[in-house]
Amino acid sequence: MREMGWLLKPAPLAGIGCAAAVLLSGFAMQNSQAPTASRSGVSAGASPSLEIIVSAAPGVMYPPEAGAGAGHEAGVAAERKSAADKLYPDGVHLLLVQASKATPLVPEFAASADANVSFDGKSILFAGKKTAADHWQIWELELAGHKLRKVIAGDGDYLHPLYLPGRRLVYSRQTGHGLELEAALYDGTEQLPLTHLGADDAPVDVMAEDVLEDGRILFETGFPLGTASVVSSASSGHPELYLVYSDGSGVESYRCDHQEAQKLGGRWGGRQLSYGSMAGDVLFTHGRTLGRFTSPLSAEASVVAPAAEYAGLAEASEGNWVVSARRTARQSFSLMELRPGTKRLKPLYAQAGMNLVEPVIVAPRTTPRRHPTALHPWTTANLMALDVRISRDGNLAAVPAEVRVETLGADGRAVDLGTAPIAEDGSYFVTVPGDKPIRFALLNAQGGIVRAQRGWFWARAGEQRICVGCHSGPEQAPENRIPAVLLKTTVPVNLSGGAEGQK
């Protein structure tokens, strides 16, 4: 549970998972089909063959997740029939840009956005509304024959679709708890909720950003995890990037340097790179600057780029980036080329009075690895910490007495599920409710809080997970010893709140 977000008292804690987590029973990695090409396979710049799909609108839709506090105008002021509509301005539609010309991609739709190109480069997923009165639904368009197929539809809104390996997709679904991630097969069946945050009176919004080459889903939500609503802007936190497997297990923060991210306005718009010295890194924006996550570092690295506001990027085969950018807030976002390591933006395409955002390149790309689920058929999950004293915020000198587990009630208030003892080496082993928001607090012998999570996370039903410590960071490795809690008993303390458990 990397970046479980623990802070020393009195500062209450944040987010999930900053203790390099070991997933005991979540996934068995399986090689996917052989790559058809590099992750995005067209040369950028002046190439007339470069095809780019963008979301275009007279208002600013990007980043809807960040809101006005991150240096962008608020999304939409007008009343809509659904909360998800607040993420998009009037008149938003997809454009196909090629050779300095733009063509509406689906002119028969009242609204369209959020294009994602298939791994073979022949189709796209997008969110669209055939009429203004419709809900946002997920569609697939076969580019060669302009063949449309409705993939996901219902009484609510469905947004931000991404292709997954194994003929599946992931998207955000509007629920009573906010925008939640959900996965399904290409035909719309076998819908599986992936995120389990928020409550009726405390909505939380989650949006998928990219599917990494190792198969994990990169998603964005507010920090601390489980406390922010994108649509209502009901949080004082900042946007942050997280990871989860495609069955909803193994949720964690990508990195734990949240204070630095907060100073820069948060992180969003994450995309994994495939070329050059930054291959494998995740590139993202703070709004007016770019940053990246790279494997050797436990905190984000800076990216050399011109001063501008950024609203999405795509990578071409030579490593050049196609970015949506504007130099001042009075300008509209347009498409530009940026060569990594330089400070020069080369104009590619602009349209008077329109913001062109979230570019994607139409080209084959590597199919990510597929992770078949290995979750147990339980309603609960088992979680173990090896040493709660370990933390990147400063190790504790003494072992706390107990760990308390809380879940979130329907009214948005914390519900105490009980406590479990912590062994002399700082380890504990507990059973918690599956598919529910949960958080932890470390207590002293008098019941006072030593450290506590400020945010929430979840464990999938049937998941088993081990953490090195509490907010210890991905750079930490566990001691090679048997945890003292397991020398006492191999049966976890049941703090599941009456769930049926493990049968």
Mind telling me the C-alpha Rg? 22 Å
Strand content: 35-45%
CATH C-level class of the largest domain: Mainly Beta
Integer average pLDDT: 84
Structural description of this entry:
The structure is a single chain. This protein has 503 residues and is mainly β. The chain has 2 domains: 6-26 and 374-494, no CATH class; 51-361, 6 Propeller (Neuraminidase), CATH 2.120.10.30. It has helices at 258-263, 484-488; strands at residues 6-8, 22-23, 51-57, 93-98, 101-104, 111-117, 123-129, 137-142, 147-152, 158-164, 168-175, 178-185, 192-193, 207-211, 217-223, 238-244, 252-253, 268-272, 282-285, 290-293, 301-302, 309-315, 321-326, 334-338, 345-349, 355-361, 380-385, 402-408, 414-421, 428-433, 438-443, 449-453, 464-467, 493-494. The strands form 8 sheets. Strands 1-32-31-28-29 form a 5-stranded antiparallel β-sheet, with no helix packed on it. It has a 5-stranded mixed β-sheet with strand order 2-33-27-30-34. A 4-stranded antiparallel β-sheet has the order 5-4-3-26, with no helix packed on it. It is globular and about 70 Å long. It starts with 5 loop residues before the first strand and ends in a 9-residue tail after the last strand. Mean pLDDT is 84; it is low at 1-16, 19-46, 64-81 and 231-235.
